[in-house]
Amino acid sequence: MLLLAFAITVSSNFDGGSIGKVEQPAPAHLRCAVEGQTDQAGRNRQANWYYFRVDGAKGVPLTIDLVNLPGEYNFIPNRGAVQKDTIPHYSFDQITWHPVEQTEFDAAEPRMRIKITPTSNKLWIAHTPPYTVVELKRMFARHKLKPEIIGKSVEGRDLYLLTIGKGPKVIWLMSRQHSWESFTSWAAEGFIDHLLSPAGAKLREQATFKIIPIADPDGMAHGGVRFNRHGFDLNRNWDVTDEAKMPEITAQRKAIFQWLDSGKPIDLFLSLHNTETAEYIDGSQAAKDLVARVYDLLVKNTKFAPTRPPQIEPLKVDTGRMNVVQGLQRDRQIRAMLMEQRITFNPKLGRIPTVEDRKAFGAQLAETLVAALGL
């Protein structure tokens, strides 16, 4: 915790919290360096997650600058994932989140400036509304769920697998391969809530749903970005087997393959993701026709607002760069898909998506996937 002038403190020592060096150029002006994260080789730095609390500023017109934004994506330098349209979110209770109403972006530095006057002595700021183990356990308790533990993360956290429904078709859903992508967890929660509601009774008869709600629990706890605690991307190393360095991928792959080896099918596999401004769904060659049906149904019936048509994931990639869709296609010809949803302005909604929007989409997604299978 940093004790600053004007009796203001800044902290991130809580689940999912992350902020780097904090400076105070003036009593009500904070410069907060986004910590970011690099891979196992110290490359591909990304600074698209921050989550911190400001105490003692009730009634004070604050200026908060988010700095230290430039990084690298796929080994190509960039000016950072935080841009003009990636509006920060704020909360006074860690439950209800709102986009910040007044921001200024300086592309030259680059710098995201927040101007806000807290109405409480506690103000939380985050890139997107956080989803931590607190929310996950709350959801488990609400539904009295007892998930299967399929393995452990690098730091020994449980890797969960939920099974819902007893229908003949089988749908796998994976969320949070990249820890910053909190909106995927809100969508997954909406997906699960819908399945377990009275409205989801028919879906539970039509299909069996296997759900990995958190693929990177260590990253979620530490406020990471996209790499596990050894620096490996949990969606870009599916052509590598290394239980010591990537126990998360090892456990997830094992659970999927054991299911298939027991004689049970996988009719559709979907990995949920967030990105800053793009929105799309891609698939494996085995899923070519299916991904087109999913795409058409999503466009017709939901607030999914794609920025391009679906594409087929290539199998020829550099060693150690194969994503989950490519890996499952190569190894078992699984009809797999990957969805990206933007965190910025959604033209169908006419605004920045909220937690409730993501949960509502999750419910619609469950209906869509079953419909795409012709049920």
Describe this structure in words.
The protein has 375 residues and is an alpha+beta fold. It folds into 2 domains: 125 residues, Immunoglobulin-like (Sandwich); 240 residues, Aminopeptidase (3-Layer(aba) Sandwich), CATH 3.40.630.10. The strands form 4 sheets. A 7-stranded mixed sheet has the order 14-15-17-16-18-20-19, sandwiched between helices. Strands 1-2-5-13-9-10 form a 6-stranded antiparallel sheet, with no helix packed on it. A 5-stranded mixed sheet has the order 3-4-6-12-11, with no helix packed on it. It is globular and about 65 Å long. The N and C termini lie far apart (54 Å).
Produce the secondary structure layout.
Elements: E1 2-4, E2 8-11, E3 22-26, E4 29-33, E5 51-55, E6 62-67, E7 71-73, E8 76-78, E9 89-91, E10 98-99, E11 103-106, E12 111-116, E13 122-126, H1 133-143, E14 148-152, E15 158-164, E16 169-174, H2 182-195, H3 201-206, E17 207-212, H4 217-222, H5 247-261, E18 268-275, E19 280-283, H6 288-301, H7 324-332, E20 336-342, H8 355-372
Report a brief summary of the structure.
Helix content is 25%, strand content 26%. The chain has helices at 133-143, 182-195, 201-206, 217-222, 247-261, 288-301, 324-332, 355-372, and strands at 2-4, 8-11, 22-26, 29-33, 51-55, 62-67, 71-73, 76-78, 89-91, 98-99, 103-106, 111-116, 122-126, 148-152, 158-164, 169-174, 207-212, 268-275, 280-283, 336-342.
